[in-house]
Amino acid sequence: MARRPLPRILSSGSAQLARSREIARTAADSATDVLHPLITLSRGLRKLAATARAKWAATPKERRGPTLFLVAACVLVVALVPYGPLLALVALMGAAAWQGRERPVVKTGPDDAEIARLKGLYEALVPYLSHPEDPEPLFAHGGDWAAVFGDHAFDEDGRITRLRISYPPYFTDGEPAARARIEQLLHAKSGRGREYLFDWDEEGNRLTMRVLSPLPTTIAAQRFVTVPGETVLGFTDADAVQRTVPVRASDGTEDAPAVVWRTGPRSTEPHLLAVGQPGSGTSSLLRSIALQALPHGDVLVIEGSGTGEYACLVGRDGVLAVECGLAGALASLEWAAHETERRLIAANRARQAGQPAPEDTRRPLWLLLDRPSVLGHLAAADGRPDPQDLLQVPLRHGRAASVTVVVAEQFDSVEGLGETVRTHTRARIVLGPAAPDQVAAVLGTAPHTTPVPDVPPGRGYARLGAGPVLRLQVPATPDPYDDATSEAHRRAVLELLPERRTATVAAVAAVETVPGSAPEPDLTTQLATHPETQLDTHLDTDTAPTVRKEPGTAAFPSPVPAEG
Q: Cα-Cα-Cα-Cα dihedral of 464, 347, 340, 311, to 10°?
């Protein structure tokens, strides 16, 4: 049976009704705009009348007569004064307009959705913060959440941004495992994807949770206002440190709170270990440290990954070498060990003679090692000693000899680090996404914040010795030769690089252009002939020259011959 079409009056009635409603709504809005002053005045007159009626009702009966006489006298005076009634009318209309104005609604408490969220969080905490033998429990199913939750704040989406929780005194807030359970629960119930700070007040039995704003990523490599011996590792929260440095960001100049690492003879954390995931920014951290160290010292770079991340430093003033191969790394680290011993001996002789230490022993020497575990695997396969074994002398005696060691490694190879490296690198940094147990394994303690799964490069945590765990954002220092580097960051890094040594370039060009030239001398002869090009060789495994080492002599000559 075919369906019969609806009559036209029924099919088009809904459209006409909707159109009529729209016309009526538009007319009402227009009338409201036109009559808005009258509406405001009428609302104000109504409020003034209500106020006068309330005051008259509150006036005692024995005082109503004098009050009425006083009001009548005032009305009479106003009526007799020239332009008095007009001025009184203007004053009345002004008072009515002021009382009838639209005032913003002030929120005095959470709305229904926020109350439901607080109730759910309260019920979730009951199994962890209650005890069956407690006669008056703070946390009980169906209890009063307002008695334990205070100072709560929400964002535009209704998620908690700040909350203070009062917990019972018998809760074991001194145990890290108990704290971790509460922090994990609050993190899950308050919204993932944000970084929360948990401040435990054991004395007052209170826990304050608040959401931290992301650290800025607009600060690139630049000259920081520091003294020799200070290195800016990155930037943190304003309330975490007491020192700020002026920086240039993409959005202007500002004073940013900096994490400053102090090295040298009086440093309590002379060496640094940085651990992170691939792409987390550990190489950028080492480049930032190298650029800050070159104006005041010498830098030796050992790159185990062999990806050319430090090619921009090759041949620069102050850069002793950039080694990517096993042979070059072993030779360079052996020289660094003997150089540390030479500095110690020279400084000791100067002290015994009552003289200051020689200038060459006080010039800082930086050993930057990126993924040394890779070279350790190559050395084990080739039957050679592990390069980390040659770090024992610089790590143990580097503070007195002004030698600083910085090691960067990835989480999957951190087990390959030697015991000496683990023991003497008391300044620690963790970059990139990491679980709380991974952060605690590197830093020695868990952070007071919840790590987020997605972070920009250079974001992580830092801890200097036994100090607190700080959030960290490393200044952007990418490889300027990388095609993915932006032009602004490329210029920022290239402006900080020292000039290239012309003597090295001229010597290499002369050897390559003169036909029938003598064969290349060994490394010891090169360093003795050209001391200004010391350690600037860039060796690799296949083409490394043989280093002759006599008993009792160093594989690399000292910059200044030892006395006697």
A: 80
Of 420 and 551, the structure prediction assigns the larger pLDDT to 420
Lookup result for tokens 């012309």: 502
- Choose among 472, 446, 369, 457: nearest CA to 413: 369
Say which residue the tokens 């009056």 belong to. Answer: 9
- Tokens 């005095």 sit on residue: 108
Return all residues near 328 (Cβ < 8 A) that are at least 6 apart. Answer: 321, 537, 538, 539, 540, 544
Say how many C-beta atoms besides its own lie within 10 A of residue 84's C-beta. Answer: 14
Q: Among 262, 292, 302, which residue's Cα sits nearest to residue 409?
A: 302
Q: Flag whether pLDDT at 527 surpasses 60.
A: no
pLDDT at residue number 319: 95
Q: What was the pLDDT predicted at 81?
A: 83
Which residue type, as a one-letter code, is found at position 502?
T
**200, β-bridge pairs:** 207
DSSP state of 169: T
Ranges of beta strands (E only) in 72-141 are: none
Helices (H), 324-448: 326-352, 359-362, 372-382, 392-397, 419-424, 436-443
Q: What contacts 486, CB < 8 A, 6 or more positions away?
A: none
pTM above 0.70, yes or no: yes
**Is the CB of residue 458 less than 8 Å from the CB of residue 285?**
yes
Question: What kind and span of H or E run contains 513?
Answer: helix 502-513
Over range 446-474, report the average pLDDT: 90
- The tens digit of pLDDT for each residue in 192-239 reads 788 899 999 999 999 999 999 889 899 999 999 999 999 999 999 998
3 state SS of 459: strand
pLDDT digits over 73-119, tens only? 888 888 888 888 888 888 888 888 888 776 665 555 677 888 888 99
Mean pLDDT of 125-146: 89
Are 379 and 387 in contact by the 8 Å Cβ rule? The answer is yes
Strand partners, 321: 300
Q: Which runs of E-coded beta strand occur in 172-271?
A: 195-201, 206-212, 230-235, 244-249, 252-262
Helices marked H in 270-315: 282-293
Give the contacts of 97 (CB within 8 A, at least 6 positions apart).
37, 40, 41, 44
**Res 477: pLDDT:** 94
- Whole-angstrom distance, CA of residue 190 vs CA of residue 121: 8
Residue pair 376/401 in contact (Cβ under 8 Å)? The answer is no
Q: Which residue has the higher pLDDT, 174 or 559?
A: 174
Of 485, 534, 474, 487, which Cα lies nearest the Cα of 290? 474
427-431 vs 272-276, strand pairing mode: parallel
pLDDT in tens, 1-13: 555 554 554 445 5
3-class secondary-structure state, position 435: coil
Residue found under tokens 């020689």: 358
Tokens of 76: 């009479």
Q: How far apart (Å, rounded) are the C-alpha atoms in residues 82 and 91?
A: 15
| Higher-confidence position of 21 and 265 | 265
> What one-letter code names the amino acid at 523?
L
